[in-house]
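Homework-ish question, so no full write-ups if that breaks the rules, but can someone show me the predicted structure for this set?
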Amino acid sequence: MRRPRRTRDDLRDQLIESALVEFAAKGFDGASTRSIAERVDAHQPQINYHFASKEALWDAAVAHLFDQLLNAVGEVAPLDGADDDIEAGLAFADALRRFVRFAADHPELNRIMVHAGTEDNDRLHRMLERHVRAWYEITTTVWTRLRDAGIAAPIAPSNVYWVIVGAASLPFVNAPEVRVLTGTEPNARAWVETHADGIVATLLPGLTTARTDR
Amino acid sequence: MRRPRRTRDDLRDQLIESALVEFAAKGFDGASTRSIAERVDAHQPQINYHFASKEALWDAAVAHLFDQLLNAVGEVAPLDGADDDIEAGLAFADALRRFVRFAADHPELNRIMVHAGTEDNDRLHRMLERHVRAWYEITTTVWTRLRDAGIAAPIAPSNVYWVIVGAASLPFVNAPEVRVLTGTEPNARAWVETHADGIVATLLPGLTTARTDR
DNA sequence: GTCTATAATTAGATAGAC
DNA sequence: GTCTATCTAATTATAGAC
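A: Not a homework solution, just the prediction itself:
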């Protein structure tokens, strides 16, 4: 009945995956290290041994998520360097689509972010400076350019970041709510693509026009 | 040093207000009935006496919030009856603006909703059927009409509800994040109105055009 | 009818066994 | 170096005093 002993790294990875699910579902305070451990057949004190504290586990889990995000959406920096504005707009549209797909596949990211963003504490500051600020800055920069080019919708660069994140991720963050209210499955491929299409067409109305103009 | 004894209703109201803040900040599991009680100078067991259980207190707090929302945004039903489409569009734009202002003034609503919507449990179902479904239905109905009239942006009626709620409320739900990343105060009147302007102009592009056409 | 004292459970962290 | 046994504090609910 005994499970073969795991390697250090395997156990760490499993605890991180488990932590993501629990933190996303119940928030930092609501999640218990005991449940996180038991979900992967470990004992609660093993968390303190491998991560020193609940906070440190949270930091590790968040870092893991943002690694995956960067992998999935890719560096957006090149956007700024695209030759012409339409090019930049198309690249941004692509990044938006990839972000919507990531939000559908990994609802934990935006669940954790929306939990963390409600309270002003050290955890939030660490997450923002380590992982979020770069995304915020590149978004406002590219958006300003696309606005000037008449491609982007009339949203101020200072708040477009939250419009994008909120609109793109909420149906996946609240997937159970979507299922109850619509009777449809938001994680179905078609649902996700419809959502991405709507977001892109609405936020970048000048792109559809421009593309047919060429 | 003794506080004058409160009436039954005063204490209930104070506990509900306190519960809203705590549930919004930490989620249902993370919030403790002890903190909720202590915040208004009461003892933890008084919650069980006045509300029977933590769940019942949550239900009462949520009901109170949705009462306030209805008060602030008003019945949207009349929208459907407006004579012409532009009229309906203007009324919808007005409701959107009032919703944005409410989200700024009462971030607890969307914080609690976003927490509740992540887990499929009885609490979520009670909230959806009692308070949310009506808003979802009227939104999709009006949106379908405005889409057909060429006023609304190209977002499917089945997901526009989450686009609106997500885009309109996230900067207030995550106000601490906005403060850190932008250095601005999202609750400032100007910030809120700029946000509302952006949302309305982006979601109802046909309205600006139509208005100048007349 | 209302609140205080208290019970039963579960939280995260540590100390010491292996 | 890793995990198990255990500790202290905090959780919600109840029982009984006023």
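Now go work out the reasoning yourself. Hint: The mean pLDDT of chain B is 93.
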